[in-house]
Write a structure and sequence with these properties.
By secondary structure, this protein is of the alpha/beta class. The protein has helices at about 5-15, 30-45, 60-70, 85-95, 120-135, 155-165, 185-195, 210-225, 240-250, 265-275, 295-305, and strands at about 20-25, 50-55, 75-80, 100-105, 115-120, 140-145, 170-180, 205-210, 235-240, 255, 285, 290. The structure holds beta-D-fucofuranose. Its main location: other.
Length: about 300
């Protein structure tokens, strides 16, 4: 043993775990809850978290990952903005022997390039949202759709699931569809456009790929003199407290919950891997239930107290 190797040995045995996290941004309440959970759980476990808010730009995420590699962090977590374009930077991480965990949205890349992915089934969320519509709204129904970020798994798969269900029902059709980038402001603006482009009274339901856009759209519907939740049914995904409040107030109808508590399963996997466990599944699923006005008040209280 040289002095140097002794020093290195004692460092790796004692050093605390450092994790780099390239987050999408702070476009929605759900995302903010997820970021806070990642920070809180890291603190609880004595893990140092290097957090990068990528402002919905993949280029920023790739730059953050490159920095994490240069810092020689113990693990890298990516919540990808879009699905494509990840292979080169993940190859770099692999060459540096740094494990990568994919959270939430998916990527199109070789499975060998990451350790595991922790996420819900977004197709299933779209299916559940559409099934609520099929079961609760009678007769012809003209739907307007606010899509999430173009190229993101959450938008692609939720759209796929919803369409799969309504395609079997001739009475239900999507008459307008546009992205509002998962944000409340854009949700309001795009809904205003929909209400101008269509006869507002002919719109039966809004299908929004997240609560944040739905909340913006609810505002637009009110300003147009219609009753959200009644004249236009509001269907969405995430289950953030503000949306539970909207359901309790009768201005929104249904949401499919998405669990923002991804910190514990993420650090579990990282700690297992770093202690030598090689038996880690490629996909770890989180699940969520459908919530309606029926339990909205109590669910709101539970989530905010
Ligand atoms: O539904 C939305 C967000 O990727 C599943 O991204 C996520 C989505 C979530 O900002 O609110």
């Amino acid at each position: 043993f040289t002095m140097m190797s002794l020093l290195l040995f004692s460092h790796s045995a004692m050093a605390e775990t450092v994790v780099g996290f390239a987050q999408v941004g702070s476009e929605s309440g759900w995302r903010t809850n997820f970021s806070n959970d990642m920070r809180d759980e890291a603190t609880r476990r004595g893990i140092t978290l290097k957090f990068a808010d990528s402002q919905q730009q993949q280029a920023n995420q790739i730059r953050a990952v490159r920095t994490f590699i240069a810092m020689r962090v113990d693990a890298i977590v990516v919540a990808p903005v879009v699905e494509t374009g990840w292979t080169p930077i993940l190859r770099q991480a692999q060459r540096s022997n740094i494990p990568v965990i994919i959270l939430d949205r998916n990527i199109r890349a070789d499975e060998d390039l990451y350790l595991t992915r922790i996420a819900s089934d977004f197709v299933e969320e779209g299916v559940k949202a559409a099934e609520w519509l099929v079961d609760n709204v009678q007769g012809e129904c003209r739907v307007v759709e606010l899509q999430g970020t173009v190229g993101s798994t959450a938008a692609i798969d939720r759209g796929t699931g919803f369409n799969r269900v309504i395609d079997a029902h001739d009475r239900i059709s999507i008459v307008r569809s546009q992205t509002a980038e998962f944000t409340r402001n854009r949700g309001k603006e795009v809904m205003e456009n929909f209400l101008r482009a269509e006869d507002p009274r002919s719109i039966c339901a809004l299908w929004a790929h997240n609560d944040e856009m739905a909340l913006g759209a609810i505002q637009a519907i009110r300003e147009a003199g219609l009753r959200p939740g009644q004249d236009i049914r509001i269907i969405s995904v995430d289950g953030i407290p503000d949306y539970f409040l909207a359901m309790a107030n009768g201005v929104a109808n249904v949401t499919v919950e998405l669990d923002p508590h991804l910190g514990a399963p993420t650090y579990d996997v990282i700690q297992r891997y770093l202690s030598g466990d090689t038996d880690i599944p490629k996909l770890i699923r989180t699940t969520g239930d459908v919530f309606t006005q029926a339990t909205a008040e109590e669910e709101y209280q539970r989530r905010t107290q």
